[in-house]
Amino acid sequence: MAEAGTGISRSAPATLHDVAREAGVSLATASRSLNGSTRKVNEEYRKRVLEAAARLDYSPNLSAQAVARGTTTTVALLVADIADPYFSSIAAGVVAEADHEHLIVTMAATERDPERELELVRTLRGQRPRVMILAGSRPTADPTEGALGEELRAYERSGGRVVLISRNELDLRTVLVDNFAGAEALARELVGIGYRKFAVITGAEGLRTAADRVEGFRAGLAAAGGTLDDDDVIRDAFTRDGGYDGMRRLLERGPGDVELVFAANDVMGVGALSAIRDAGLTPGTDVAVAGFDDIPTVRDVTPALTTVRVPLEEIGRRALRLALGDADAQAEGAVPTEVVLRESTPGRK
Amino acid sequence: MAEAGTGISRSAPATLHDVAREAGVSLATASRSLNGSTRKVNEEYRKRVLEAAARLDYSPNLSAQAVARGTTTTVALLVADIADPYFSSIAAGVVAEADHEHLIVTMAATERDPERELELVRTLRGQRPRVMILAGSRPTADPTEGALGEELRAYERSGGRVVLISRNELDLRTVLVDNFAGAEALARELVGIGYRKFAVITGAEGLRTAADRVEGFRAGLAAAGGTLDDDDVIRDAFTRDGGYDGMRRLLERGPGDVELVFAANDVMGVGALSAIRDAGLTPGTDVAVAGFDDIPTVRDVTPALTTVRVPLEEIGRRALRLALGDADAQAEGAVPTEVVLRESTPGRK
DNA sequence: CTGTTAGCGCATTCAC
DNA sequence: GTGAATGCGCTAACAG
Prior knowledge:
Shape of chain A: elongated
Strand content of chain A: 5-15%
Helix content of chain A: 40-55%
CATH architecture of the largest domain in chain A: 3-Layer(aba) Sandwich
Order of helices and strands of chain A: HHHHEHEHEHEEHEHEHEHEEHHE
Oligomer: homodimer
CATH superfamily of the largest domain in chain A: Response regulator
CATH topology of the largest domain in chain A: Rossmann fold
Number of domains of chain A: 3
């Protein structure tokens, strides 16, 4: 029983049925006027339907459309931490591209917990999203890895598209960031401007992205002539605080002869800068620092952080295009990175 | 016709119907076993259904549930810019709380365009979200304001809940941030430590949040004895680049006798810091700077930025709780802010 | 081109 | 308790 009153109080949203009645046409005609892919509706009717819809403030029920059509207009995005600039930049790209395609993005945060991630994938699958994008690598030796893979594959089997960002552990579509090559190039450039003795601050062992960067860095040093002792590879949380803490530990251990510290990502690098300063030293001068990602803030810290630029937003866009079957996105290889030298690594020769 | 094959190739997701058949029970029993609020299903049957569901890798179709139940488990979140730390922090809070309530968040970016915002609200309404959260103020004199209000009210009339964050233009539920009081307190403290001559860098005229902060700052100065010439209120984009540009313009105009520049938000403040440095001056020493929000990065810039702390993530959480009718959230007043003095505003006496 | 009808996947009322 | 039947809002054949 609908309300007979003035309409001021609570009332159910108008349905297509209401619109059809108001316009004096059939349900089908109303549907076709409002959506009909191949428009073939008398202009007069069409107009009446549109007016009726406006009058009733009609808004199509997307859930109903989804069940009827058997397909949704949803994209699911999973990130580790929404507030982390790395992920929020990627998310911005995904959302921008999704908007462009008239798709709606639902977002969830794994908080870097593999079990949570699996749980979220299961829940999000219920939405029957057209695409599922997972950003952020997980531990290489992860017990839930198999289950995640199964879940994702089942999702793909049922017509979904999953895209991984910077994590090719599973045999799925991936937007590859050449972390290894980027770090290698960085190492070469740093040796090129005079640095010889390095240390590294990175995330927990087994984090794929972090591992690739460290390995690449190591390879670059080996080729160019820099040194990195195994003792000088510090592990901590893959966050700003982890970078701060890692650097603090490195400094407490005695300054040693380390000239430059490579942080496996920018947020850690920024934390490292602060730790150096808090220890009474001058970053850049006493200890040089380099990061990875080129998140927006690194231009604004002092000294500005040398890093490897990763086109984060573009990666988000590309992830969605890739999922949607964009030919170009398919063809392109790994996302190009670029070394950006700044004041945190002044030349030494 | 379902596939008879091995199941390796594409196949439609299992439906509740499939599960029921596999378990040898009726649709109703399957439904009750998997969800049934008032559980009243034979344990034996229940078990069989659960097993069948697992075997078929069943995932309930949320759209179908939404249609049948007449209600969704969705929360819609609108922000100006996802990559902006202010919004991404709020978003993180909303997502965390939503997850807690087993709600799914869909996110969209208005890009600070009122028309886009209106359009997005219309689209998102189609999802029939339980809650709609809008963050970020819009121009006070905005032609689409009326339409937005209408749309939002219609949404509420149909049972939805909208919550505004830091914008009470419309007559709707709001998580209020006392921007005025925060800025006023900041002004008093700054005068207290010796500053007298101020300038302000803020967003476009009419931006409510920005306006409140500037007015509060002005009021604080008036009470404490600081001065701010109208000429020294610079307007620019409400972004990092806007802050940089605004400061550059201020500096180019001649240093004048301005001792401290108040940026209406932290991202502008951070940009201002960089502009000062790029002009060959030392921020904090030559020109002091203060911001607003206390986004994570302001601890890591040099000098660390004095600001007014706004509990961004908590605001996101509270917005959702408020929408959900949480009594505490209703009772609480404006979100408390706190002045945080840092090195960018060294004491002058 | 338009209207009628049969589902889409699921919850739920109603008999059994 | 359990199952059959109805309906949610909408789309997509299917006939006219």
